[in-house]
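agent: user wants the structure for HTH cro/C1-type domain-containing protein from Spumella elongata. delegating to structure tool.
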Amino acid sequence: ESRPGRGPPTLLGAQQWEPVVLHKAAPKGKAAKSSSEVNAALRQGVAVETSKKMAGGCNKSGSVSVAAAEPSAARKLDEQTEAFRHERVSHDFKMALQQARLAKNLSQGQLATQMNEKSSVIHEYEAGKAIPNGAVINKLNRALRAPAARKVSK
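agent: tool returned. relaying tokens verbatim.
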């Protein structure tokens, strides 16, 4: 016995037998790109709208560069003859770091593993070649439990 609506689904009622026709969109008109095509349209009396795109045809970004906004900024950079250097850790800092590490009987590698840093970082700080990083200095202070000298040479 089959009850109505309880049997297997049938696809007979869902079949579509009439043809379906697909159409392409009508062409919207060609944008004239060359100047001769624009001039020909103007001679015929057709309304022509021209618009210049921002930096169109140029190999430039849309943003304005600092040198373009203020030409004197580039000149100021060229005129500067002063030598600039990064700040390095001071002699007092590196000596305090070495003494604190040796007081704890730690090698550079052991201190580095406590801090989750490379041993080369500790070596650079103790050699005075490191550029001071506040996060690394805080890690050093925490690992050694002694505030190292916070002075930085210029």
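agent: one observation worth passing along. The chain has a mean pLDDT of 79.
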